[in-house]
């Protein structure tokens, strides 16, 4: 049966043999006959166990030997024994039979669930604090037969994966680049903050206007939703800000701040796991800038009823968690 697993994926590669390659003229039933006979060492007992006649069993074994090109069994008055070749072939026959049983069980489960039993969730790294550890635990409790994959993606890559169907739904940020083919289910507003050193003069307050960042070296993500939103704000408000560093990774931003080379600007969710005595987080205002974090999917029904149920379950769970957090902060 499909096992309960949670996978965190950036991509996958599957290698299969060519489907057109001609297979030997053997059936799985014939392999089953050989394996059962090897275990019971009796034609009578094997025929009874498999509910077939002894002539049919003998014929199947002769065909296996003919296809493989060698003798597998010795049949005597005392019973059945395996030849040296039979002993060598048996583990492969058992493995083939076990794989066939497992694959058939999986195919039956797929038919029952209307899909392959896998839920594929795409997410941008900064929203992972919304999911872990609570969401996997809830999915395991309420959907124990569902296999879950978490695909770690940039926001732009997430939109592409949603469009081509590589993920069932995603959790990311919205902006003007979200295509009309993607439906948006807003969860929360994620305000932009500055990460600065604790010994920086700007750290004395909890909030600072954007204009106070003038003449300071600023570090920003080089591309994606965050970069577009900040660049648009700077342009539309004619802010005299100096973006000196554009980097790809969050830790590089923090490294630049620790080194006193720049202050970093990014959404608050990115800082949820920041645990550094040298750094602090200051909210930016005048104007306030935030990104909308949302669940996203195609408008059409998802691949299977269970996948749809999981989406609705998570949507309700997020709304409940966000509401409870807001009430605690009042």
Reported for the largest beta sheet, the result is: 11 strands, mixed
Quick one: CATH superfamily of the largest domain?
Periplasmic binding protein-like II
Number of helical segments? 10
As a percent range, the share of helical residues equals 40-55%
- Range of strand content: 15-25%
CATH architecture of the largest domain: 3-Layer(aba) Sandwich
- What are the segments in which pLDDT stays under 50 over at least 5 consecutive residues? 10-16
Radius of gyration over C-alpha positions, nearest whole angstrom: 30 Å
* Beta-strand segment tally: 13
- Helix/strand/pairing class, anyone? alpha/beta
Query: In CATH, what is the class of the largest domain?
Result: Alpha Beta
End-to-end Cα distance, whole Å, is 48 Å
User: In the CATH scheme, what's the topology name of the largest domain?
Assistant: D-Maltodextrin-Binding Protein, domain 2
Secondary-structure element series:
EHHHEEHEHHEHEEEEHEHEEEH
Number of domains: 3
Shape: elongated
Mean pLDDT: 86
Structure description:
With 330 residues, this protein is α/β, with parallel strands linked by helices. It folds into three domains: 22-113, Winged helix-like DNA-binding domain superfamily/Winged helix DNA-binding domain (Arc Repressor Mutant, subunit A), CATH 1.10.10; 118-186 and 293-329, D-Maltodextrin-Binding Protein, domain 2 (3-Layer(aba) Sandwich); 187-291, 3-Layer(aba) Sandwich (D-Maltodextrin-Binding Protein, domain 2). It is 41% helix and 24% strand. The chain has helices at 28-40, 43-50, 54-68, 84-113, 128-131, 134-142, 155-164, 225-236, 250-258, 305-329, and strands spanning 6-9, 73-76, 79-82, 118-123, 147-152, 169-174, 183-197, 207-209, 217-221, 242-247, 263-267, 279-285, 290-297. The strands form two sheets. Strands 1, 4, 5, 6, 7, 8, 9, 10, 11, 12 and 13 form an eleven-stranded mixed beta sheet that branches. A two-stranded antiparallel ribbon has the order 2-3. α1 crosses α2 (43-50), α1 (28-40) packs across α3 (54-68) and α1 (28-40) crosses α4 (84-113). The longest helix has 30 residues, at 84-113.
């Amino acid at each position: 049966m499909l096992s309960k697993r949670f996978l965190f994926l950036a991509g996958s590669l599957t290698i299969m043999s060519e489907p057109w390659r001609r297979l030997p003229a053997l059936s799985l039933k014939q392999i089953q006959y050989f394996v059962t006979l090897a275990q019971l060492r009796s034609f009578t007992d094997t025929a009874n166990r498999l509910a077939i006649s002894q002539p049919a069993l003998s014929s199947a074994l002769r065909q296996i030997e003919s296809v493989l090109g060698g003798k597998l069994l010795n049949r005597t008055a005392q019973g059945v024994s395996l030849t040296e070749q039979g002993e060598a072939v048996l583990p492969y026959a058992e493995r083939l039979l076990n794989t066939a049983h497992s694959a058939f069980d999986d195919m039956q489960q797929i038919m029952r669930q209307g899909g392959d039993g896998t839920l594929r969730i795409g997410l941008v790294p900064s929203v992972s604090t919304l999911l872990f550890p609570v969401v996997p635990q809830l999915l395991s409790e309420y959907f124990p037969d569902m296999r879950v994959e978490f695909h770690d993606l940039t926001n732009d890559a997430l939109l592409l994966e949603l469009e081509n169907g590589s993920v069932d739904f995603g959790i990311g940020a919205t902006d003007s680049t979200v295509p009309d083919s993607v439906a948006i289910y807003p969860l929360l507003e994620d305000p932009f903050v500055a990460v600065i050193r604790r010994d920086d003069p700007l750290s004395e307050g909890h909030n600072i206007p954007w204009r106070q960042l003038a003449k300071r070296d600023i570090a920003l993500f080089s591309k994606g939703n965050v970069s577009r939103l900040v660049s648009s704000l700077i342009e539309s408000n004619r802010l005299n800000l100096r973006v000196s560093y554009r980097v790809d990774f969050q830790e590089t931003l923090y490294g630049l701040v620790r080194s006193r080379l720049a202050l970093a600007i990014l959404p608050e969710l990115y800082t949820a796991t920041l645990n550094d005595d040298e750094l602090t987080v200051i909210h930016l205002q005048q104007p306030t800038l935030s990104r909308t974090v949302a669940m996203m999917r195609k408008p059409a029904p998802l691949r299977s009823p269970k996948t749809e149920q999981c989406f609705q379950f998570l949507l309700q769970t997020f709304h409940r968690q966000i509401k409870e957090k807001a009430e605690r902060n009042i």
